[in-house]
C-alpha cells in the first residue's frame, strides 16, 4: 500500500480521478485553462492525490491532448501527488518524461473488456505491466506504479467476472513488480457483500500491496461498496468531483462515486481525510461554468452539511491557486 494510515495525519487517502476519469467519457473538451482552475480548486480543498490526465493518443481521446501541460502545471501545487493513467509502455514513457509523480495502469478482469479497452489480452497486459515496471526501475525509480483491475465485480460485455481470476490477476501484477494493485467496479455491478468478500480475499493474497477501491454509483451502491471495502481493510479510495466519469469501453458504465459525498461520509464517521467537503461543493461552480449542460451528481451539494456537523479534519486553510 502506497499510503500508510496515520503517518500523514490521515485515516484514509482520497484519490481524485475527475480530471481524467471524469472528462474521458465526455464529448465536450474542457479548455486547458479551466482544467488548471479545477485542479487548483481541488488542491485548495485539501486533495493531495489527483489523477490529472491519461497519456493516450490525442486522436483517440482528444480530451487528454494537453496531458503534458496539465502535469507540468499540477507539479507546481505544493504537496500534491500528480497521478497519470498509462495504458502501455509508450504512455508510461511520456508520463515519466512529463514529470508525473505516480503511474496507474488499467488491467481488465475480463478478457472481453481487456480487448475492448486496451486491445490486449489479460496475459499480454501483465507482460506490458512488467515492461513498464522495468522502464520505471531504470529511468524513474522513485515513481510508484499501481495496476488496478477494471471490471473486477462484473463486466457489461462478459457478465459475471470470476473471483478466482481477479485474485490470480492481482497476484500476477504484484509479481510483475507493481507497488500496489486495487480493484475497480468499473460498471457499478458490485454489491457490498461481494466487495467485502473479494477485497478480503485479495488482501489475503497480496497483503499491504493492496491499492485503491474504485467504485461507481451506476446502480446506487457506490458509497455502500466504499464502506464495505473500508471494512475489508482498504484505505485508499478513488472518487470523482460531482461524480463525473465512466468507462467509454464498458457500455452502460457511468457515475463515479462523488468525492464530496464520500468525504462527508468518512468525516462524519470520524475518519480524517484532510479535505473540506464544503469547499468541494463550492468548487462545483467551476464545472457548471466550464461544462454547461453536463449533469453534476451528488447528494451533499443539494442537502448541505447537517446542522452541528463536526468534521474529523480541521478547517482547510489552503488558498486556491490563480
Describe the structure.
- The chain is an alpha/beta fold.
- The chain has one domain (13-295): Aldolase class I (TIM Barrel, Alpha-Beta Barrel), CATH 3.20.20.
- It has twelve helices and eight strands.
- Strands 1-8-7-6 form a four-stranded parallel β-sheet. The chain has a four-stranded parallel β-sheet with strand order 2-3-4-5.
- Strand 3 (81-85), helix 4 (89-98) and strand 4 form a beta-alpha-beta unit.
- Helix 2 runs parallel beside helix 3 (67-74) and helix 2 packs antiparallel against helix 11.
- The longest helix is centred in the middle third of the chain and has 18 residues, at 122-139.
- It is globular, with a radius of gyration of 18 Å.
CATH topology: TIM Barrel
For the record, give the distance between the C-alpha atoms at the N and C termini, rounded to a whole number: 33 Å
Instruction: Provide the succession of SSEs.
Output: EHHEHEHEHHEHEHEHEHHH
CATH top level is Alpha Beta
Rounded mean pLDDT is 93
Biggest sheet, spatial arrangement of strands = 1-8-7-6
According to DSSP, the number of beta strands is 8
CATH architecture designation: Alpha-Beta Barrel
The CATH superfamily title:
Aldolase class I
The share of residues in helices is 40-55%
What ranges have pLDDT less than 50 throughout 5 or more consecutive residues? 316-322
Shape designation = globular
Helix count from the secondary structure assignment: 12
Q: Which sheet architecture does the biggest sheet show?
A: 4 strands, parallel
Helix and strand content put the structural class at alpha/beta
Radius of gyration: 18 Å
The portion of residues forming beta strands comes to 5-15%
Q: How many domains is the backbone divided into? A: 1
